[in-house]
Each structure stands twice: as structure tokens, then as C-alpha cells.
Structure prediction request, 492 residues.
Amino acid sequence: MTEAPRLMNYIDGAWRESAAARCLDVTNPATGEVLARTPFSPPDEVDQAAQAAARAFNEWRRVPAAQRIQYLFKLKALMEESFDDLARSITLENGKVLDDARGEMRRAIENVEVACGIPMLMMGDFSEDIARGIDEYMIRQPVGVVASICPFNFPGMIPFWYLPYAVACGNTVIIKPSERTPLTMQKVFRLFEQVGFPPGVLNLVNGGPDTVNAILDHPAVAAVTFVGSTPVARHVYARAAANGKRVQAQGGAKNPLIILPDADLEMTTSIVTDSVFGNAGQRCLAASTIITVGEAARTFKPALAEAASRRVVGFGLEPGVQMGPVITPESKARIQNLIQKGLDEGADLLVDGRNPRIPGYEGGYFLRPTVLDHVAPGSTIATTEIFGPVMGLMSVDTVDEAIQLVNSGRYGNMACLFTSSGAAARKFRYEAQAGNIGINIGVAAPMAFFPFSGWKESFFGTLHGQGKHAVEFFTQTKVVVERWLREWSRQF
Prediction:
């Protein structure tokens, strides 16, 4: 057997071997096969990337915005050409089914498209004669070197919440992909090479926690983005902010879905199960707690349990498969322990997905969908981000009680309502304390031209990823108050 390749960093326009003493195996979670080895790059390699980006910034910021976006137009074309290869890479390293991987890459490309509008999105404001002969205007300028610390669950999409906006605004970039799913970014950086970005504009540094801390501490890095768990998001936010950096840190979630009795049974059942079990529940907008109101419990609970038990689990590249494995054996063990904890705390097991056997993939990290009923508010299952294919069911009598349950949680990433009532939908939209709201939608993922919002402990910062928020985050405003002592007519 050939040894799995050791991944390389991309710094100052060239691929470089890391001197890291420690590596992490990147495995296919469906088979257990080792695909590659991620080096845990030491701080001096972060410094090399940061210094290269700082040198490149002085020239890159002077490139007119209309010229900077030409690189993005070329990048979009190359991403379209490599679309299936990139999606397949996501499935191999992450485990999600191929259709989900294709959807992820489509959203990545959409962000490139939106960033191509930077010549208009970056425009400032001008006021003439704020006093006699004095004008005032505001312009936007890039912040400098920016870094993105990316998660394992969307290795192709989440870097593009940030990267195209950052470079279009005139910044230079360091990407730190998840050490568990770094292969897709290796392919993407090969495309960057083909595009011909100037050396130092885009840099890739692989690594783990020490690499992250080196980024957070480096004086040349002006801004940091992060997506991951709440404890790590809090750490990233605090440490980067203490070092004077602007930060946006997306944390964990516990996304509740409310079902009213007037919701359409077939459509709602399909959408809810897709939301809970898509990507094996490993996404920040995966539904987790399903709250039925009144008579909805009688019809929807058996329908949801049946739909969960029918879901086809297997290797994501095979046709007909609806759900793949979780990312690691440790994740599988953690999720199974949480299921048992839920049972110990009084929940009822409607569908048991623990320890399945997937023929031909006995070495994979598989779980089947699990459904727990009578989950108690405040219990472990009700309050913990499981990040796995587990549906927790609760029942209340009124929509007010349901909204109160939604708002009592410490997270605020997404909340959704299923109903035929416009009045109920408006009440929910107005009162629910979450940054992304869905009405008859199971995954309220904003389009690329809207910000990916998050409230409470799901987000640390002010400006979010994507759209106008990304443009504001990656630029700083400069206000100029201007007077000329002699009028033009007197000079000639």
C-alpha cells in the first residue's frame, strides 16, 4: 500500500512542505480509508504566510476594484469546470451525499458571483457643501491581511463566505481549513494558481489549535473569521479581539422547528426530516428540536418517525443514498452516548439508529437516524448541540409556549415554523429570537447576497458572513472633510 500524501501549504504563490512534526490522518468517514495527512503547521509558517500577505497587500490594494474582480470572473469559470470534482472531494473527506456536496459548491460559486459586484458594493457617500465651500465624503478601504479559520462540515462553501469579498475589497487572505477536511481547499488553491492571483494575495496554512492561536496572535493579521463550536468561537473572539483584531465568530446551534396543526403533513414531514438528517445532522442549520403544537403531535410524530426509519444510509457517492456517516469514530461514540443520556433522562426511543451495519462499509462511522420523544426542556438532549442525526420531539399546547421554548435556549442561529396561517407566521417571525428564520422552510440558509445571521451564543461579533455584511467587515471607513482655499475661477 502507498503511504497517504502529506498535504502542503500554499504561501506567497508557491506550494511548500511543512516542517510540522505532527500530522493528522484525513480519513474517508464512510470507509475508514486514510486519504491524506494534515501537517500541524508551526507558528513560524503562519508568520511566513502573514508576512507574504502583508507584502502583497501594498500592491493588491492599489489594483482597481474593476480589475480585481476579473480574477473572480476567471475563478468562477474554473470552479464551474471543476464542479463535479470539487463536490466529489467533499463527499470523500466529509461523508455527505453527493447532492449535498453539489449544493455546497453551488453556494460557494454564488458568493463569488456576488463579490463580482464590489465596484458598486464598495461605493462610499458624498455630501457637497456641508458648510460653504466644504465637502465631506466617506470612502471604504481594505483592512489588510485577513484570515479565515474554517470548519469540517462545509469544506468547500464556508471559505467562500469570506474569501471572494476579502480579495475583491483589496485585502490579502490566509485560509486555515479544518485539519479533518483539508482536501477540497487543496483543489481550490490549484484553481487559484490557474487564475493567476499575484503571489501572497491568497495563502493556505494547514494545522490545528496551535496554528489557529498563531493566527489570532500575529500582529500582521487585521481581521479573523471563524465557524465552529461555541466554546472555540468564544476563544477565537476573545483572543483575537484582545490582540486588536476585528472578528466574526460563528458558534454552535440548537435549531428548533415548530409544527402547528394546520401544517401540510406530507410536505412538512419531508422538509423536517431532510433538515434534521441532511449531512448526518452535521451542519449549523440542522434542525434538532421539533416542537409540535396541540393536535400536531398526533399526526406528525408517527409520520416523522416513519420517515426517519426509511432514510437510506450509506456511502455518499452511491446512488439513492440519503445520508452518509458522521465525521469520526469519536463523533459517533459521542452521539451514541448523548442518545443514551437522553433515555436515562426520561426520553422515549421511537427510532434507534445506534450501531448500524452498512453492508460493504463496516469500517465507516455510520449512525442511522434516531428519534427521541418526550424530550424534557432543560434536559441534555434539549440543550446540547448534538451535531449528529438525532431528532428530539417536544409537545406544547399553544404557539406562545412554543415560541417561549425557542427563546429560552442559549443559541440563536435558526428557528422555523410550519403553518398555513399568515398571522401565526408573522407572530413567529416577529418574536422568535434567532438570526435566521424559516417559514415552511427547514434550512433557512441565506442566499449569498444576504448575511448569514446568528444571535446569542451562536455568534460573536457584529458583522456576519456573505453579502453587504462581508463588504463592511473587510473594509474600514475613512471620512474626509475637504476645503480648497481658492475657488477654481480665481486660478485661471
